[in-house]
Every structure is written in C-alpha cells, then in structure tokens.
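Let us practice reading a record.
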Amino acid sequence: MYTERVSRLTGAVVWTKRPTGTAVQPVLPDGCMDLLWSEGRLLVAGPDTRPYAPEGPDRSWAGVRFFPGTAPALLGVPAHELRDLRADLADLWPAARVRRLCGRIAAAPDPARALEDIALERAAEAEAPDPLLRRLVECLGEGRPVSATAAELGVGERRLHRRCLTAFGYGPKTLSRILRLRRALALARAGTPYAETAIRAGYADQPHLAREVRRLAGMPLGELLAGGG
C-alpha cells in the first residue's frame, strides 16, 4: 500500500510503500529525485526518462520526493550523473556519515519521518533553491513552449539546457514531455475522455498522447490506469 503526505521541506513529499502481495507497478518519470530507505539501505533515485521496474520481491520503502530540480544541490551531485539510476547514498557521501544516518533511521519509530528530518537538515546546510528553476517547472508544467519560457526567464536556450542537465538530469524539452505526461495522467484519472485529455494536456491529438504514453510509461494508457499508474 502506498501513502504520501506533504513534507515540512518546501515542495517535497514524504511517502511510504508497504508490500501488498500484488504485482509491483513500474515507477514513471515525474521530473523528481528521491531519497530512499529500504531494508537498512539509503539510496537515491535519479531522474527517470523511462519506466523503472523495481527488481526483486516487493518490500517496504520510505522516501522523500524532492521538488523537481532541487535534489542535486542537497545531494551534491549533478542530476545527469544519476539519470535512470538507483544509487547507494554511500557512493555519493562519505561512508561513515551514511552508516550513522542508517543507524539513526533504523532506530527511529517512524523511518519516513527520520528520513524527512535528514532531508531538512541537509536543506538547512545547502544554498536556497534557484528560483529560476522553480519558475521553469511552473511554466513547463502549464504547457508553455520551451522557447517562450527561456525568453521569459531571460536565459538562452543553450545555457538553459546546461542548467537543466545539472538540475533535472535532462534538457528542458524532455522535462516538458514528462510534465505533460503528468498532466495527462491527472486528467485521465479524473475521468476525462482520452481525446479531451490529449488536447487539454497539450498533445496534437489522441494518437500523439498514445505514442507518448507508450514511450514514457512503456504501456498503453488504459493498461497504465488499470494498474494504478
């Protein structure tokens, strides 16, 4: 069973997942990175460009999902180095520090809250999130073109692309596609007909929506929604 709540860290979400005995659903691209805890390990989920299928048996997880573009500054690693990866935090931070954090979470009555506390502490040490990146996410999330958004932000498209690689793991056009998929899924889950969903989410037509869902989610829209994706 999956549950989530708004984090005390601005823009983040704290979530937990318990085994259900059913098939494990793939994790879809969402523009975010996560700090994860499971079975005594601290990991980082890098930015996905394709569906991620967890390996092995279903197990318990706790996580903090950071607002798009904010995790690299907290973790101290460019997002593109973790693209489509799940990495041990000990590969990014000193091993002794990670062992102490693992012991702290393991001893906590609520691992998810302990994980959130660690994220809050790290955020207090790091520089404040770049407001340009937040505005970029807002604009692209509204369906605005990349070129128009770059012009509004006063950033050249090449420079914006470089900043996006560091913050999101990929360029602004890929980020735009992923955020558009999230809009479409929200509409379709709410019962909006697929043809209307396509137009309202910013696709040319329903076949365009179907192709993008297959590319980014790995399955047809109807199958994805039936599985709870």
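A brief commentary: The chain has two domains: 2-125, 131-226.
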